[in-house]
Amino acid sequence: MLDTGFEPDICKLEDLGLPSKDDRCTSMFSVTFPTEVQQLAKHFLRDDYVFLAVGTLGESERYLIFVETKRSADYIGSLLSQKKFRSTTMHGDRTQQQRHQAVQDFTSGNCPILVATSVAARGLDFPLIGYVVNYDLPDSSDFYIHRIGRTGRAGLLGKSISFFDPGRDSDRKIAPDLLARLIEAGQEVPEFLKKYADGGNVGFYNDGQSSRNTDVRDGHSHFVNRNKAAGPSGGTASAGAANEDWD
């Protein structure tokens, strides 16, 4: 309220006979407390006020990114590290020691981003995963369900973001199953997915520029219309053994 123009109104409340700030207990709560707001708040607080921060926004969340090939895992992991995002990777060419270290770094939060092939889709218990990203969609709906089942566990909320590439045969093949999963979960179905599920064709570019169609409501999937257009989320199921390639 302080940084949205309500400071004069709060001052009026003080003028209505409230005890002075030294003779009263004043509590202020906010999701964030930027410097500007703290400066404004000083007017209403004692000089020896107590500042208490309960956690850091997003500090406990983990991000699990799935790719189809080992090369992609290494490439994206390296790219994220170069951009100063703390990340690690996991795939079939990693030694047991390297896998153990990746799990430890990811679980502890030392590396809150894990880029992995489907070897991480099941059999591992990762807590606090806030987002699952299918950078590459798997070639079966079972693997898809197993992947996104890594988030939203034990009653917690989670989101999955999937990229649909119409240039990949496997993505087009899985489209009908993805459509069915979305309908079953009661989520909004993007038009491009309906058309590919029906065997139709749809363009993703307009005058050379990619378009976007994003549903940002809580509890909904995010869909991004571009060369890889985002797909659906939700559900649980079993899957077979992971099938990963280098390329």
TrEMBL record:
<feature type="compositionally biased region" description="Low complexity">
    <location>
        <begin position="229"/>
        <end position="247"/>
    </location>
</feature>
<dbReference type="Pfam" id="PF00271">
    <property type="entry name" value="Helicase_C"/>
</dbReference>
<feature type="domain" description="Helicase C-terminal">
    <location>
        <begin position="36"/>
        <end position="197"/>
    </location>
</feature>
<feature type="region of interest" description="Disordered">
    <location>
        <begin position="207"/>
        <end position="247"/>
    </location>
</feature>
<dbReference type="InterPro" id="IPR001650">
    <property type="entry name" value="Helicase_C-like"/>
</dbReference>
<protein>
    <recommendedName>
        <fullName>Helicase C-terminal domain-containing protein</fullName>
    </recommendedName>
</protein>
<dbReference type="InterPro" id="IPR027417">
    <property type="entry name" value="P-loop_NTPase"/>
</dbReference>
